[in-house]
Automatic annotation (TrEMBL):
Keywords of the record: Electron transport, Mitochondrion, Transport
Ranges where the Electron transfer flavoprotein alpha/beta-subunit N-terminal domain occurs: 29-221
Cofactor note text: Binds 1 AMP per subunit. Binds 1 FAD per dimer.
Record protein name field: Probable electron transfer flavoprotein subunit beta
Cofactors required: AMP; FAD
Length: 259
């Protein structure tokens, strides 16, 4: 653990197939094919890393220190994702080494162990990962820690030992205030992540990156959900041209049966 800081932020950074890659189901029909595909940091987690760095920069103006710790669970290549977070501005990283695909509850348990070790004031996660779209880990972590949570944040303001979060809900905009420590999950409109500069990429190679074997945490990470089959969605059928509104209504009623 690093020396004392005025604020400590833990940021979860998941390695996923890059959002621009067109994915396909593997030959066995059991999962999405990931071999030989470009991977990157989950976009929502990237927003979380940016928010932690923005908080650090804001605190620096008032001579306060912020310790930003990036954490990821996964194989050796997950270190590439952590180095990206370090190049963006995180101070250090923790890699929980595992070759297993962890489900949200298992990830939440791992993060709980890291939180107990690092004792952060804020844990920031993306609201969901683009590979499984579960949207569960942040909420589960809050439950395991018995911490307050602010999900889907589109604006964050910090005060003394408290955090005010603006979030989008079905009925409009909601503003909540929560004491620290707390869990924060990020939405798309919170910020625009920065690009890591070449000098910062080089500096990131020298920043501390701690490796922890998942077995050493003595956590039950057995999957609770079994995937029986993965299939691609049915291909869209070609459209039809109609001559007038009456014909359109007739087809919607008699053929599509949606009216």
């Amino acid at each position: 653990m690093a020396g004392p800081a005025d604020l400590r932020i833990l940021v979860a950074c998941k390695r996923v197939v890059d959002y621009a890659v067109k994915i396909r189901v593997n030959a066995a029909g059991t999962a999405v094919e990931t071999n030989n595909l470009k991977h990157s940091m989950n976009p929502f987690d990237e927003i979380g890393a940016e928010q932690a760095i923005l908080i650090k920069e804001a605190f620096a103006k008032s001579k306060k220190t912020v310790d930003v710790i990036a954490v990821s669970c996964g194989p050796a290549k997950a270190q590439e994702t952590l180095r990206t977070a370090l190049a963006m501005g995180a101070d250090r990283a923790v890699h929980v080494e595992t070759n297993d695909d962890l489900q949200p509850l298992a990830v939440a348990k791992v993060l709980k162990a890291i939180v107990e070790k690092e004792k952060p004031d804020i844990v920031i996660l993306g609201k969901q990962a683009i590979d499984d779209d579960s949207n569960q880990t942040g909420q589960m972590l809050a439950g395991l820690l018995n911490w307050p949570q602010a999900t889907f944040a589109s604006k964050v303001e910090l005060a003394e030992k408290a955090m005010t979060v603006t979030r989008e809900v079905d009925g409009g905009i909601e503003t909540i205030k929560t004491p620290l420590p707390a869990i924060l999950t990020t939405d798309l409109r919170l910020n625009i992540p920065r690009y890591a500069s070449l000098p910062n990429i080089m500096k990131a190679k020298k920043k501390p990156l701690e490796k922890i074997a998942i077995a050493s945490l003595s956590i039950d990470v057995a999957p609770r959900i079994e995937i029986l089959k993965v299939a691609e969605p049915a291909k869209r059928q070609g459209g039809k041209t109609v001559e007038n509104v009456d014909e359109l209504i007739s087809k919607l009623k008699n053929e599509a049966k949606v009216l």
